[in-house]
Structures are given as structure tokens and as C-alpha cells.
Model the fold of this input.
Amino acid sequence: MTPDNVVWLIPLPPLIAFFIIVLFTNRNKALSHWVAIGLMGVSWLLSWGVFFRALGTAGFGAQVLQAAVAWLPFGAPSVAGTGPLSMGVLVDPLTAAMLFFVPLICLLIFVYSVGYGNFGRPVDPHDLPGQPPHRGVEPLYSRFFAFLSLFAFAMLLLVVADNLLLMFVGWEIMGLCSYLLIGFWYSRDYSDPRQITPRQAAVKAFIVTRVGDMLMLLGIAYLYAQTGTLSFRQIMYADGGAMLAKLASTPSSIVGLSAAGLIGLLLFGGTVGKSAQFPLHVWLPDAMEGPTPVSAMIHAATMVSAGVYAMLRMFPLLSAGWVSGGPLTPPMMAMAVVGTFTALFAATIAVAQNDIKKVLAYSTISQLGFMLAALGTGAYVAAAFHLVTHAFFKALLFLGSGSVIHGMEHGEQHAPSAAAHGLDPQNMLNMGGLRRRMPLTFWTFVAGGLALAGFPFITAGFWSKDEILADTWAHAPVIFVVLALAAFLTAFYTMRQISLTFLGQPRTAAAEHASENTWTMTLPLAALGFFAVAAGWAGIPEDFLGLNLAGAARFQAMVGKALLSPPEALPFNVVPLLTSLVVALGGLLAGWWVYRRFAAGETDPLALALGPVYGWLKNKYYFDELYDWAFVRPVRWLAEVVVSQWIDRGLIDGALHGIGRLGVAIGDALREYIDVPVVTGAGDRLGSGVKDVGRSARTLQTGKVQEYLLMALAMVIVAGIVLFLPILMSR
Amino acid sequence: MIPLSWYLILAAALFCVGLYGVLARRNAVALLMSLELMLNAVNINLVAFWRFQAPASTGGLMFTVVVLAVAAAEAAVGLALILSIYRQRQTVVAEDVDQMKG
Done:
């Protein structure tokens, strides 16, 4: 089998695992996780095999691994001379980078889920399916691994797809899986009716992303109608990008936009939904209702990365007609504006959140904004690099927060006083001092947190964020300033989180009695901790600080070749470097300084400092309320009043009722004028007639034999008269 | 020789006596006896017509023998019925046996 064909096999093992678990091993928890982890491991080995094979290929970039089969026997009807629509797989440098981290993170999350699902503990009869387990093993343990496997399959399918349609298939399966997994604890309810429940969050995520998906599908359809193909290579690389030039010069139905511009904007719509960019960011924080491995899966390795990956993948199309340093194309402009705004906007919200997972959720939105802002200004490689490093450290942070929550729940159960029970184990104000109770989680969390904050030189986040800042400094100074501000806030809220969670003294009994988790949970943390630091080394710029490091900028050299003309490395500039140093260290220091002595029951110092602004931040600028007012309620009104009451009950039911009434009237008339008098009447009269005759005839039957004989005699006389009278008369 | 009409008048008188007995008597045994009278009136007719009209053929005699046989059988069945009714109802009055009243 050629390496090209091996690529087909990469997504398959998790799919097989899904079916095996669903069909056969559902009742056996141990077997289920072995199947899921084992087959995910196979997928990982295949991916890394392909990755290293691709690295070793001479001229990788121009040369790619690909294989395809004809799917539809006909081409696009609107474009003459197109070949059949093909489905296939493609590994180019960008895919290779994805293959490096996606299966690895998925595998680590799978392993982590074993510990997170309390595997090995006995079944607690108090645990109900569809609710988080308290002491025993997760009741729906096997189902969880089945869903995770399907999710991993969808992501890998999306990564290796060689055309937009197949990518969209993976994209949509992921949408389904995120719905299933966010709502995994489907029967969980909260005492506070305003707190969103998992099933509401699942529906919200599904519907909000659907808005973007619809735009994306429109973009795909438009692209197919214009070019007659959806293959990435054919659209963006064949004949030196001739098709892109054609698309860029074709005007679209919207004035002032080329076909490429309109398609790019529509595709970007899909990313706005999937990667939770403003204004469709609202689903992601609520998606935290899912189990924590799901949060890591959705917010690091897979779903949200998929949005940015799609933009990276389509970048030649989005930037068709753009020359480096020239005016941005409309899709790039949209990406730059939305990304930059979201980066800052989400970072400000994250500052005021007290839920450990919510902070990370907003941080994810913010970091995805960084990537899109970078891509919008043309910094292709920087965006891809940040995607990779972010995946590692955000997965680490999520799994770390899951470990913290798990440890807090454990502490809550083992605390001697009853006061500890019923605490929110996700609220950072209830934590503190966990560094002594959970050292491994602490150190790995710090590694991830520092990477997120961009701690200079040693963490991966520094290198990727620095590259984004350097690129924006060179091309769009306004974006640079905003992103630098967002980076400062990132460092601040990260340190706030670390201070509140791990530093200081325990603020509750639960935090005092928290304990470190099993090795299945801490091992993935350690592995991700390594990559959260080391992944950055692949992307150290070549002329950093004037040192010509050997083996530097491997990432840029590899991923840059995913484009037809690999971008030039920027000359080293000291301004963005100094900025990154200042914002990262400044933010970390500020976060530590403000929260270093935070005590139990104290008001958040930020709330005092910011006053009413803090309320806005804490309530996420009231976007949920705004959407509720602007969309949810009008739609409800439309559904309940217009559609249900007027159209459904009034119009449709009215018409149906009219037909029904007509039928009833016809039936009544038939009954009244035909059935009752004619049919029933005849029948009744026949019956009653027979009865009357019988009644009068019964008097004849006296039972006395002599009377019968008398009657017989009378009849004989009558018969005699009748028979003989004519004879007598005729004489 | 006694003319045919005398026989016929005797037979008619006997038949009427029997008919009256059948219609008017209350005792069921008397009813049966009256019935025998009517049958024998017919027998007289049969024999008389045979003697005066067709003495060469034996059909009239044969008929008479058959009627006698039937009458004997009828008397046996009728008496058995009357006996059975008497055992059940302690009566032989024909008017009282009216269970078949409609």
C-alpha cells in the first residue's frame, strides 16, 4: 500500500471504535475504553507515520500525498467541461501540521477520560444516567467513549479531506457530536432557573453554529457553481492558481464583491459559528456544561480548531487578488476586524469570570480571535503556528481545570464539616492553595497558563503570539495595538486564575481536602505540559535577536510551503518583541499582585476598581440577554403566536376543520333524509310487521287439539265450497 | 239386495258420529275411539264401493286392510301418548293438554 492510500485509513479507526462500542461492548466499560483508546492509538500512529513520511518527502508542499475516487459521475451542470466530483484525501504541509497534534491530543483526552469517568470505582446506586457521578463510575461511561470516538473520526476526516464537501461532512458530524457531548449530562438541572442546563446548552450550541454552517454551505454551493470542482488542489494550486485569478476577476451578484470575495465571506461565516467568533460566540461558554474532556476536545483539539483550519485551508481563495502589503480583500478584512475585535472583547469578559472553565472558554474565543486576526492580515504561518501551540496548551488547561474540579469534588466529599457540601466546585473563589494538595496538576497548569500568557522564551505560546504580533506590527499597526492589549489581559486573567486556584491559602474546607487524581488523569497533563512548552521550539524565528539559530523556523519552513508562493520571513523587529515581553510579564505580574492575598468572602478587587464596568464584564456585556430579546423571543413569538396560533391553528386547522364540518354536515343530511327514514324505516317496519302478524296469529294457536280439528273441519268446508260451488253452479 | 246408497248413508252417519265424538268428547280415550269410528266409516265406504263397482279387482279390499293396519298402529301410538300424558299430568282430558299454546 502506498503512503497516499494509508491516509485514507487515518480517520477510520475511531469510527470503527464508535460502532464496536455502540453495537457490541456497550455493557462492558473496560472493554469500551480499551477499544476506544486502542483504535485512537492506531489512528495516532498512522498519523505520525504519515507526518514523518511527509516531512521526509523531497519538495513536500509542491509534492503532496493524495488519493481520490470519483464520487459523482457527472460534473457541475453550470460549468462546461468539468470532471466528475471526486472525494479523496490530501496531506499537504498544513494537513501534516494538523496530523501532528490532533490525534495526539485526542488520544491523551481519551486516556484522561478514563480517570475522569471514575473508572475502577464501584457503581454508586445514587448516580443516575445523564447526571455527573458523585462517587461511583460514570453510568454512561461506554457511551461517552463512543461519542468521543465519533468526534475524533469527524475531526480527522475533516483534516485529511481533499475537498470542501468532505470537509463539510466532517464539520457537520462534529456539530452533531458536540451537541451529544455538551448535553451528555442531559438530566442535570440546577436550582437557579437562570443557570443554563446542559441540554439547553447543547441545543444552543447546535443552533448557533447552524447559522454559520448555513452560510458555509451557501459558500460551498456558490464555489461549486462557479468552478465545477471543490477540490482544494484544483481550485487553489492547479495551473499556478489560474482558477483563483478567474474567481477574483468574476463579479458576483453583490456589487463591489468578486466571486472569490463573496465565497470567502460565506465560508468565513461558517468559521464564525464554528470557532465562536463575535457575534456567534455565545454558544461556546455555555458548552462548558459538558464534561471537561469534552471541553478540551471541543475547545482545543477539534471543533474550534476546525474553523480556523478551514480558513487556513481556504486562505489562497480568501486572499485571491491580494499582494503582500497591498489592500486587504473583503474576506481578509472581515477576518481581521472580527478576529481583532473578538480577541479583545472575549479577553475583557474572561477577566471577570469566576468559573474556572468559563475563563478558559472566553480565553479560547479570544485566542481564536488572535488567529483569525493574524490570518486576516496575511500572517498565514503565524496563524497556523498559534493554532498548533494553542491546541496543546488549551487542551492542557482544560484537562487541568477538569483535574482541579475533580479534586475539589473529592475534597467536598471528604471535608469533615457539612459546610463544604453544596459548594460550586468550579468557582475559583472557593479554591485557593491547591498547589500543595495537587502538585502535578499545579505545575502542568502553570506550564499551560504561562504558555497562554506568552511567558517569554520558554513557552510555546510566546513564540506563536510573538509571531502574530510581529506580523500585525508590520502590516496593520492598529490591529497590533488591540492585540497587544488583549495579550495583556490574557496574561492578567491567566495569572488571576492561577492565583485564585492554586496560590494563597485554601478558602474553603473542600479546597483543604482536595486531592490529586489518578495517573490516567495526570499522565495526559504531563504529556501536554511537555508539548505546551516544546511545541514552540519548532517556530523560533531564524534571526531572532540576531542569533542565527541552527534548526530554527522549522515550522515556518514546512507550513509556508502549503501556499503556492511561501511567505517571506519577516525581518527581526525589536518593537513587537519588547511589546510581547512587556504585556506578558506585566499582565502576569499584575494578576499576581492583585490577587496574591485574596481571602475568603472578599469582594473581587477588580469589582471595586472597575465599578459598574465590572458588572458588564461579568454578565458578558449582556449578549445572552440581548440575543434572547432580539432573536429568541421574536422567534418564540413567531412560533407560538404567528405560526402556531394564526397559521397552524387558525388557517390550517381552520381549513381542516371546515372540511371536517362539511363532511359532518353531509353525513348528517344523509342520515336524516336517507338512512333513518328509508333504510332503517324499511327494516324496522319489516320487523315490526312480522311481529304484529305473529302476535295476532298466535291467538289461533290454542294448543288444544280439538280446536285445531275444528279449524281443519272449517277449512275443509270452506275448501269444499270453493271447489264444489263452481261445479254446482255450472250444472 | 241392499242398495249402495244405504251403505253410504250408514257410513256417513257413522262418520258424523265419529266426527262429533272427536270434536266434542273431553276424554282423550274417547277421542281415539271416535277416530276409530271415522276410519271404519271410511272402511265401509271402501268395501261397499268395491262390492258394487269393481268386484273383480281386489284393490278395495287391499285399501281396507291397509286402513285397518294403520288404524291399529295409530291406536297403539295414541294410547301410548295418552298413557304418558296421564302419568305426567294425572289427566286424560284433551282440553287440559294445551302446552303448545302460542
